[in-house]
User: Fold this.
Amino acid sequence: MNRTDALDMVRESIASVIPDADVTALGPDDVFRDVLEMDSLDFLSFVEVLSERSGVRIEDEDTSRLTTLSGSADFLVAQMR
Assistant:
């Protein structure tokens, strides 16, 4: 998986959890949980969806790396090497 594919997967995962979110307006370093006002259940759902779509097991300690599009994409790319 390249970084572009990872970014697309992160955006799609967010959109599946918050269907009315404008993920195209998110900057790569925006803290999307704050920008989209995701509560803890939304964020947990995002992590589950991202894990299912990518096939990457995401541990609790990894979630701090999943706060921005860039951070999430970098995490996925690193895990899939």
The CA atoms of residues 47 and 63 lie 8 Å apart. The chain has a mean pLDDT of 96.
